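Lab notebook, bench 4. The sequencing result for the construct came back, and we need a structural model before the next group meeting so we can plan mutations. Quick request posted to the team channel:

Model the 3D structure of this chain.
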Amino acid sequence: MNNTLYSLPKLPYSYGDLAPVISEELLKIHHEKHHNSYVTSANAILEKLYKARQENKELDYKSELKSLSFNVGGHVLHSLFWENMIPKNKDGGKLGGEIEKRIKKNFGSFERFKDEFSKVAAGIEGSGWALLIHLEEVDQLMCWPIEKHNVLFVPGAHILLVLDVFEHAYYLDYKNERAKFINAFWEIVNWEMVNERFKNMK
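Done. Here's the predicted structure in token form:
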């Protein structure tokens, strides 16, 4: 086994394409440094676990698996994050299709959903994510907070939309004004991708 089980995905756009919402410099650092560090760390832990099994050695499994969960969570959520953004003024940035109907059904209106999602994102304590998820058993869309990359996660939930509110996702462009970043995020949501995720979960 080598450390290539997880790999850093290519972005579906160039580093400068999300400006001015996310600057080229910020996106490049976020992707190449932060996301890549989760991939590297996850692979290193997997390598350590594999080696320990081969050599019949003990590890601090609680610590190693906690770290693996954090890093794999970071990798998975970032991979979804890149895909659910699109350059401004692209057709995919327009809300429509089945996801628009379901948002209006579950939240009453898009404005209500947007407000709820934004407040969940703003209310994350420290670092984390805001998610739009579908809870299958009750057939409901929910706005959901994730602390760090893996705390409060709901097993079996279908993830439709994610927003990174770690400081590294916005500080270079917005300083400590997380609310401004959240508001700007709506300008680059790839609703076509969100709609595809909603349809594919079925």
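The longest helix spans residues 24-54.
Will bring this to the meeting.
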